[in-house]
Amino acid sequence: MKSDKDRIIERFHQIKDLGFVKSNRKNNTGIGKTFEDYMGVVENNLDKPYLFGFEIKSHREETNSYITLFTKSPNFPQRANAWLNLNYGIPYEENPQLHKLHTSMFADKYNTFNEQYSFRLINDTTNNLLRIGIFDINTKKLINADAGYTYKCIETVLRNKLHNLFYVSANRKYIDNDEYFHFNMAEIFSNPTIERFLKLVDAGKIMYDIRIGSYKSGANYGKPHDHGSGFRILEPNLKLLFQNREEVN
Q1: Residue 180 contacts residue 170 (beta carbons within 8 Å)
Q2: Which of 155, 174, 167 is nearest to 47 (CA)?
Q3: What three-state secondary structure class fits 102?
Q4: Burial, 70: exposed, middle or buried (Cβ in 10 Å; 0-12, 13-18, 19+)?
Q5: Which residues have CB under 8 Å from 108's CB, separation 6+?
Q6: Alpha carbon distance 144, 206 (integer Å)
Q7: Strands of 152-241, DSSP E
């Protein structure tokens, strides 16, 4: 009986043998959507791997961009998104009564937000917390760090979502303005650790994006809407998160 690893590798080789295939979506997510369609994956935002026990990520060989490790709303305090958006978000131009908070931050430097705040991740090793630090833009004095993630929360997501990662590379070309991919290389990564994750955070190699908006209509009008807050990493650094790496031939 074939193992899950054997099955996903076999499926990959079948797709590789197809050569160039037309992208099924006309934007940056087209590569992932196309590969997953051929693999038979249904798009989802679940916390667990979704094909033969593997999370799947793909990239264009010539690019060096950030890829999403996982998306997750801050898990402390309760209703953290609502609190952050209310206190530090900026009004929508078309509806000033509602707020949004969209910004990217690292642990090794301050960003600039709304010409008023600087955001920076704070690795609180004493309390086992990764905090969202909000600072005065001029003095860099800490204003608040009451929201963020527990180590346990991050470790759980790493274990459930990224324990086994199937990472696919593709060449691309254009025919009549349509993008085509040849999925020709793959690697298997396994066993990410919280220690490696935090080391990468401290080194400024993991970026945190907070993407909170507000529902503009319907029953949830005015309530916070998380558009994909999460942690991202440059493609060449992905391997640093995992204990094990295997090339798929």
Answers
A1: no
A2: 155
A3: strand
A4: middle
A5: 202, 203, 204
A6: 21
A7: 164-175, 178-192, 206-214, 224-226, 230-234
56, pLDDT greater than 90:
no
Residue pair 54/164 in contact (Cβ under 8 Å)? The answer is: yes
Tokens at 186, concatenated: 């793959």
Q: How many CA atoms lie within 13 A of 51 on its CB side?
A: 23
In 166-224, which ranges are continuous DSSP H helix?
Answer: 194-202
pLDDT at 177 over 80: yes
Contacts of 229 (CB under 8 A, 6+ apart): 71, 72, 73, 74, 81, 208, 209, 210, 211, 212
- Please give the average per-residue pLDDT across 116-133, as a whole number: 98
